[in-house]
Amino acid sequence: MSAAPEAPAVDRRGLLVTAGTFVLWGVVPVYWHLLKMVPAMQIMAHRVVWSALLVVAWLMLSNGFGWLRKLAAQPRVLPALALSAVLIAFNWGLYIWAVNAGHVVETSLGYFINPLVNVVLGVLVLHERLRRAQWIAVGCAALGVAWLTLNAGSPPWIALGLAASFGLYGLVRKLVAVDPVAGLGLESLYLFLPSLAYVLWAEAGHGGSFASGWGWGTDLLLVFGGVVTAVPLVGFAYGVRRIPLSVVGLLQYIAPTLQLLLGVWFFHEPFGLDRALGFGAIWLGLALYAGEGLWHSRRRPGA
């Protein structure tokens, strides 16, 4: 019997690209912090404008109008991607505001919660069934959020808003089977004109100072924000097709872990025992869910 062939190099490349994508998402709070003198809505509008130009240019160069005709031939796709565009815009805007308002630790909490929000949406919307250990994992995370709410005096709205918006975004994109980059291109087109209109309105004497007041360094950061937005999304789309989803599920915790470390060590946000207990309950839930999923997959014949 011949020896089993080695894993193809493309798999290792996919692993590196996907891991690198999550590392970029993990350290991106530092980038948005460099733009803290710019109002969050203007950062958001510039982010959409420049990323839309980049993504659509890439699609046009690689496939002409073919990608757009293919999407337009599926009428159900058009309103669904309009909804997903609104959800991702809300997520991006809230994230940028939270980073520059000094809530990096809470943004990390949102992305730690997000996988379990996906589980809850799967149960409520897709009628998926959970095993007992998975329910225990969700319960641990819920206890963690409840503990953080009790100690803060109010729910962690930023974290819950980020987790819910990104979870709903993922649900919409799951229900509509489209190419990831083409879908991002259409979402960008939906957001482009409102964002461009806001940028022009701001520049017409309403607080905008692009190419005049903030300096060329800030202007370049705003333009390059389109690259910071689009490249990781394209990298994720590339990598996720080449490695198992179970590996993607584990790699996704790189980003919020780095965000948490940045929040504590770089931005010097408080992280006392009360917060650590709440995060600990959520981490326990994530560990239980991931561990149970791996164990169950290994038990299945032919897994």
UniProtKB/TrEMBL annotation:
Residue ranges of the TM segments: 14-32, 44-65, 77-97, 109-126, 133-150, 156-172, 184-201, 221-240, 247-267, 273-291
Location in the cell: Cell membrane
GO cellular component annotations of the record: plasma membrane
Membrane topology: Multi-pass membrane protein
Pfam families: EamA
Record flagged with keyword Membrane: yes
Coiled coil spans: none
Keyword Glycoprotein included in the entry's annotation: no
Domain EamA stretches: 13-149, 158-289
Keyword vocabulary terms for this entry: Cell membrane, Membrane, Transmembrane, Transmembrane helix, Transport
Family: Belongs to the EamA transporter family.
Protein name, entry field: RarD protein, DMT superfamily transporter
